[in-house]
Amino acid sequence: MLLLASVLIFFVSAIFAMLGMGGGMLHLPILLWLGYPLKTVAQPVGILLNGLTTLVALITYARNRLVDWRGSWPMALAALILAPIGSMIAHLIDDRVLIFLLVLMIFFAAIRTLTSAKKAEPKEFTPTLKHRVLGVTVAGFAAFLGAMLGLGGGTLISPLLMWMGYPTKRAVATSAFIVTISSASGFVGRIGHLEASWLLVVVLSLAVILAAWLGSSLMATKAKPHWVKYAYSILLFGVGVKLLIPLL
């Protein structure tokens, strides 16, 4: 089971690192499908892996000067504050409700990314005050909801930055920074409920670190933005349907 989890999580982490996301949206379903408990293993381990993926990706993107540090700090601060609150509230909500909310986020991200894939790629983008206020609001909400579900919030943040007008690679890199902060903050709120074995945590952590390095390196140097968006959308639709069927 551990070997299968490592292989699957390695694969999805490489893809999500290319999108500035941690992969928690798929880490969590994978751990659930393999029989791990939702609130004591799948969610805390998922958000830890999420943060590790974006942290490694962030290092690569920073080296390639793709991160909008100045524009992302207010969003990262909002995520830092609200993520632990979402983690604490999660333990008061029924498991089926959490999974249903996860499915909704998956479908939203898939549709949002698919529609943006057809748009022309912008060359430059300078955020206005309106963009910054919207970014802080959505980043805070995404971090809160993401931490509640065992994610990092990249599901909403990365599509938001693309919608605001960021070029794909810059949006991906900037999202990686915000999601790293959100995931770290959210994990702190869950660490007291973690009941996973250290072997599981260490092996999966090593898998996502390697995958994130490979995925972010490809995105920074070779990947075509629209190809990544199409592949990501198709993958998300499949996962969403898979999670929704048992609920119905």
Radius of gyration: 16 Å
What profile does the largest beta sheet have? none
Helix percent band: over 70%
Secondary-structure element series: HHHHHHHHHH
- Separation of the first and last Cα atoms: 27 Å
Shape: globular
| Total strand segments | 0
Number of structural units classed as domains: 1
| Individual helix count | 10
Q: Would you tell me the overall average pLDDT?
A: 81
Strand content bin: under 5%
Structural class, from helix and strand content? mainly alpha
Q: Which regions are unreliable across 5 or more consecutive residues at pLDDT < 50?
A: none
Element layout with pairings:
Elements: H1 2-17, H2 24-33, H3 38-63, H4 69-90, H5 95-116, H6 129-149, H7 154-164, H8 168-188, H9 198-221, H10 225-247
Structural description of this entry:
- Its main location: membrane.
- With about 250 residues, this protein is mainly alpha-helical.
- The protein has one domain.
- Helices cover about 80% and strands about 0% of the residues.
- It contains ten helices and no strands.
- It is globular.
Outline:
This protein has 248 residues and is an all-alpha fold.
Keywords for this structure?
mainly alpha, 248 residues, 79% helix, 0% strand, single chain
